[in-house]
Amino acid sequence: MSPEDRIRAMDLWSGPVTIAPLSGGITNLNFVVTDAGRHFVVRLGQDIPEHLVMRWNERALTEAAAAAGISPALRHAEPGLMVTDFVASQALAEADLHDPATLHDAVALVGRVHRELSQQVAGPVLTFWVFHVLRSYAAWLEENGSAHIARLPGLMVQAGELEEAVGKVGLVLGHNDLLPQNILRAEDGRLWLVDWEYGGFNSALFDLGGLASNAGLPPEAEAEMLRLYHGHDPDPAYLRRYGAMKCASLLREAMWSMVSEISSDIDFDYAGYTAENLSRFNAALDAWKEGA
């Protein structure tokens, strides 16, 4: 059964529906469904064990984020499928987050996630510790004959150094995948956050480092991001730990792509994405070491 046929067969609809693909996803298949004048997003995706993605966790956090007014409402969920409200919006691009007003609003949204989301969720929730993810990726890549096997030992040594530098952390419930395209700007200017498949308890450092690195923030914008989040300029010890986590977030994105080169059947240039993120990781790591 095709994805479109599965969507049409759902009992959720009031009558015949119109289905249009929603571009941009590099892990899942997404569609906009129009039913009696109302618009919904249907997201298709199974568990992805190699990425530690469990859909029950994504559903729990999607519901919690909707209850907090951070994400569109979840209307239906079944194995491998979720239906949320459609918000007329534009996904952000890297350049959008270089705009001071947009960055201000995005940081405020991330702050709300860290302060409010844990109050909206009950029951099991995963923990996302990037260094565990990196070790899991390395093991999977070796077992599955990745073209990147030769570089894995060196990357794992670097990951260990970064984990030691991060040190002990406090936990928040984080999004853990703050790509610009996961932040939507609605027609009224409001920002929404979507795609919770990697959500879980983590250090706030990871979301902040991910936001900065995925958006390619220049140094002055990155400093403003941290100032906005904390309400003051962080001290050098914090910046050292933050820099280590930012490097780890870039390495995770690169290794996520290495795994996807093998496991994904979505039409996307994963090899190019791997190379781009390895380059960003190496540049960030060099800058971090120079600042020691």
Descriptive report:
Helices cover 47% and strands 15% of the residues. The protein is an alpha+beta fold and 292 residues long. Helix 5 (152-166) runs antiparallel to helix 8 (236-263) and helix 8 (236-263) packs antiparallel against helix 9 (270-290). The mean pLDDT is 95.
- The quaternary structure here is single chain
Largest sheet: 5 strands, antiparallel
Radius of gyration: 19 Å
SSE string, helices as H and strands as E? HEEEHEEEHHHEEEEHHHH
Distance between the termini: 56 Å
Which strand order does the major sheet show? 1-2-3-5-4
- Tell me the CATH superfamily of the largest domain: Aminoglycoside phosphotransferase (APH), C-terminal lobe
**What share of the residues lie within helices?**
40-55%
The total of helices stands at 9
| CATH architecture identity of the largest domain | Alpha-Beta Complex
* Backbone structural class: alpha+beta
Number of E-state strands: 10
Strand content: 15-25%
Query: Can you tell me the overall shape?
Result: globular
Number of domains: 2
Low-confidence stretches: none
Kindly state the mean pLDDT as a whole number? 95
- Assign the CATH class of the largest domain: Alpha Beta
The fold-level CATH name of the largest domain is: Aminoglycoside 3'-phosphotransferase, Chain: A, domain 2
